[in-house]
Amino acid sequence: MTASVASVSRSRDEGADYSDFYHEVITGLERSPKRIPPKYFYDEAGSRLFELICEQPEYYPTRVETGMLARYADEIAGFIGDGCCLVEPGSGSCSKVRLLLDAMRPSHYIPMDISGAHLHEAAGRVANDFPWLDVRAVCADITRPVELPGIAEGMQRVVFYPGSSIGNYEPGEAVEFLSRLAKMAGHGGSLLIGVDLEKDSSVLDSAYNDANGVTADFNLNLLHRINRELDGNIDVDRFRHHAFYNEDEGRIEMHLVSECTQTLRIDGHSYEFAKGESIHTENSYKYSIAGFRALAEQAGFRSEAIWLDDEALFSLHYLSVVS
Ligand code: AVJ
Known about the structure:
The chain is of the alpha/beta class. It has helices spanning 18-30, 44-53, 60-77, 98-104, 116-129, 171-185, 201-207, 214-230, 289-298; strands spanning 34-35, 85-89, 108-113, 134-135, 138-139, 157-161, 190-196, 239-246, 251-258, 262-266, 269-273, 278-285, 301-308, 314-321. Helix 2 (44-53) packs antiparallel against helix 8 (214-230) and helix 3 runs parallel beside helix 4.
C-alpha cells in the first residue's frame, strides 16, 4: 500500500523569486570585491549538483554526519519526548532526517526549502515512506524570517539543522540566525545542529576541490543560472572554480575567477573584470567545539550534549532554548 502525500501543503510557489536573485546579482557585482550570496547556488540544477558533491569521497561532512546520526539516533531521541514537531530549515533532499524518524517518533515533520519543486518531491517521498508521520512542506527562503504552519503552535518543537550550513554565515550573522532558530523552536524547544570542525587545511582543501570536479560545476552553475534566468551573456569557460582554506578567518572561501580581462553584460548592466579578479560566492566557516558553543549560548541556547566522530572531523550539538 502506498501512503497518501496529501498532507504536503503548497503554501507558496517559490522560496526566493526572480527579483531577489536579480537584485542581489546586480548589486553584488557592483561591490568591490564582487560577491553573490551562496543561497543562489540552489536552483534545480544546483540542488542536484550539491547532492552529487555529498557523494564525493573527498567531501567528508555528509558521510561522517550521516554515520553519526545513524549511530547516535537512539541517544539523541533519548533527549526528546515522543510526538514532537520536527522542523527542518533548508531540508534539501530530506535524507538525513530519515535516520532519526524511527528512533525519535515525531508526530509532525516540517521540511522547509528555497527550491520548491525539489522540496515537494523530497517531502512527498518522506510522507510515503513514513505513513504515520504528518508532513507539511513549507517553501521559503530561510535566511529571512519564516512563519511555521499553525499546527506547530503548542507542540514541543525540535529544529534540525544538519550539514554545517551554519558555516555560510559570518560569525555575527550566525548568532542572529541561531536566535531565529531559538525563536522557531520556542519555549521548551531545542536544536540539533551539525557543525563542521576546524582541522588540517589539506583535508579541507580537497573536500572543496574534488577530483571529479563536481564542486567546480556547482560553483560555475551560478553563472549558467545567471545566463538562464537573468538574460546574461557570460562565457562560463572564461571563469574557473577556486576554493581554499583561509586560516586567518577559519573558513573555506569559494570564488569564480576570471581567466581574462572581460566585460559581463546582464540585462543592460555591464561589469568589468580584470584577469584574475573573482566573484566571491561562498564562505564556509569551521568551528571549534568551544567556539560554536559560545556562539549558541549568545543566541539563547544551553548546550545539552555534543557528539563527535572518531576522527573529530564533525560535531553534532544538541541545544535547548533558554527561556
Ligand atoms: C551546504 C554550506 C554546508 O559549505 O560545505 C559544499 C556547501 N559548498 N561544497 C559547505 C558546499 C561547496 C556546504 N554547505
